[in-house]
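Researcher: Here's the sequence for the chain we discussed earlier.
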Amino acid sequence: MTQISSQTAAQNGTVTASAPSDRIRVDLQLIADMVEPGTRVLDIGCGDGELLGYLKRTKKVDGRGLELSNEGVRNCVAQGLPVMQGDADRDLHDYPNDAFDYAILSQTLQATNRPREVLAELLRIGRKAIVSFPNFGHWRARFDLMFHGRMPQNPNLPIMWYETPNIHFCTVRDFVALCKDMDLIIERSMVLNESGSKVSLGSHSNLANFFGNQALFMLSKKG
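Model: Thanks. This is the structure I predict for it:
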C-alpha cells in the first residue's frame, strides 16, 4: 500500500523470517512511543510488520495488521503476526465500532483513494488514530517544483511520479485544515527532518510545514 511496503518483496516470491529486532525506524519508534502497553492496535498498511512486531514484543499489545501487498502479508505471517490482506479504501468498514484503542496508518494516507473517508474510518474503529505522511510542503519539494519544474524525487519520495503509489499529496497545513474541517482533536503532533530526527518546532507552524520532511499526528474525536 505504501512506498515502504512495496519495497519489502522477497526474492523469487519466497519469504524467510528474519530475527526480530528491537531497533526500528525512527518514525516508527515515535509512533510506538504513543501507544500504551497492553492495548488493542490495528496497523493498517503494516508492510513487512516492523512496527506491529515491535509493539507486540515490547508493549504486549493485542495487535492486528492489514496490508495490501502479497509480499508484505507473507513476511508478516512468516513472523507469526496476525495480518490480513486488505485495502484501506475498501475493507475498514468490516471492522466494528471501537474495536481498537489505536488505529495506525503509517506513510499510507497519501496512497489511498479517499483520504477523508479513510481518516473517518480510523476514528470509527479506533479510540485514537495515529497517522504519518510525507510532507509535500517541505522546502526540498518546493525547491524542485520552483527551480527545476519537476515533481520532487528524494529519499522520502523515491519513486518517479509515473510509478508512485502516492496519489494524494498534502502538506502539514493541509492536514491540520482537514482535521479542523472534520472536527477532530489533534492530541499530539510532530514533524521529522530529512534524517528522521524530531524537529523542535510547533507542528502547526509555517516553519514546521517548511522544514518537516514527514509528519506524525495522534487524533481523537470530540465527545
